[in-house]
Design a protein that fits this description.
By secondary structure, this protein is of the alpha+beta class. It folds into two domains: 113 residues, 3-Layer(aba) Sandwich (Rossmann fold); 173 residues, Tumour Suppressor Smad4, CATH 2.60.200. It has nine helices and 16 strands. Strands 5, 6, 7, 8, 9, 10, 13, 14, 15 and 16 form a ten-stranded antiparallel sheet that branches. A four-stranded parallel sheet has the order 2-1-3-4, sandwiched between helices. A two-stranded antiparallel ribbon has the order 11-12. β3, α3 and β4 form a beta-alpha-beta unit. α1 runs parallel beside α5, α2 runs parallel beside α3 and α7 crosses α8. The longest helix is centred in the middle third of the chain and has 16 residues. The model has no long low-confidence stretch (mean pLDDT 90).
């Protein structure tokens, strides 16, 4: 198999030593080229070049942002996508059953590649404003937290999870309006269903008072250490999207939802949280700009996000046994 290994050497868990070990392991039975990224968007261009060359597989070795770029580059082609955990959280890699250690993960990936007919399978991706995402897009408060983390990105290698906890608290206390809703959310048939005064037209798939929304292509949403944050068991790579929208920034409501997610079983919809399952199309919009992030990369502010689920968007190399 002809493989391109795309390495983000700046990622939290990537070192010169484990890069050599990963390369050596993959090269035992396959022809492997190695390239390193040095700026945003670089991995997408490498992946697109691999598609043009007709390579069989592009493996992302970095964080979730590097994976997002590689997936975008190979989506819609016959070139498959592989993933190895190299970041601080590695949500997608852990979701598909890979261990969080790169050398252990590459062994599992290689086992899967030994039987490509069984272990390389098409999966669905989300797409927002033309950009693919593998596991989720965060809108509002969630994205503001990621923005705070990226302002201190140099600390991620040494203080990954503590940095996220600090950013969540700092953003909560000083960086995000908790008194006024930030956007409206409409799914599928409810899109465009607002009255002239901006209020919902009665559909259960409309939220007029969103404070932050997670649009999920997979579950869990993230990990807190080794504990998954389970927002919806209805999200999955062979299913449409799920949108979880918080309609309040009450500390009690948010903390109770997070604690429930840590216990497993997903979020139960209530007056504070709306959950839309089986979402094929979604619009989030407001007259004032709001922040958003895609697969952990902060992308700025916008007044409108248009989501679609894209079935069989990419062929994914699963670890053996998954």
């Amino acid at each position: 198999m002809r493989i391109l290994l795309v390495v983000n050497s700046f990622a939290s868990s990537v070192t010169a030593r484990n890069t050599v070990m990963v390369h050596r392991a993959l090269s035992h039975d396959h022809h492997v080229q190695v390239v390193e990224t040095n700026r945003r968007g670089h991995a997408t261009r490498y992946a697109q070049d691999a598609v043009r060359q007709g390579l069989d597989l592009v493996v992302s070795f970095g964080g979730d942002g590097t994976l997002n770029e590689v997936a975008t580059g190979v989506a819609g082609s016959d070139t498959a996508l592989g993933v190895l955990p190299g970041g601080s959280t590695n949500v997608f890699a852990r979701t598909i059953g890979l261990p969080n250690d790169p050398t252990a993960a590459v062994a599992r990936l290689i086992e899967g590649l030994a039987d490509p007919e069984r272990n390389i399978r098409p999966i669905g991706l989300g797409r927002v404003n033309g950009r693919f995402f593998c596991f989720h897009t965060g809108v509002g408060y969630d994205a503001a937290v990621v923005r705070t983390v990226e302002q201190r990105a140099y600390l991620k290698r040494w203080a990954g999870h503590p940095l996220f906890i600090y950013a969540a608290l700092h953003t909560w206390l000083t960086k995000y309006d908790r008194k006024h809703p930030h956007f409206r959310v409409a799914a599928d048939d409810a899109i465009g269903g607002y009255g002239t005064d901006g209020t919902p037209s009665g559909s259960a798939r409309l939220v007029n008072d969103g404070y932050f929304t997670i649009v999920m292509n997979t579950n869990p949403y993230s990990f807190l250490g080794n504990r998954p944050l389970d927002l919806s068991p209805h999200a999955g790579l062979d299913k449409p999207l799920v949108a979880v929208t918080f309609r309040t920034m009450s500390a009690r409501a948010v903390l109770s939802t997070v604690l429930g997610a840590l216990k497993g079983g997903g979020v139960t919809p209530n007056e504070n949280v709306s959950v839309f399952d089986d979402v094929h199309e979604l619009v989030v919009e407001h007259e004032s700009p709001f922040p958003y992030q895609v697969d952990g990369d902060y992308l700025g502010e916008t007044t409108r996000l248009h989501f679609r689920h894209v079935p069989e968007a990419v062929r994914l190399a699963f670890p053996a046994g998954n």
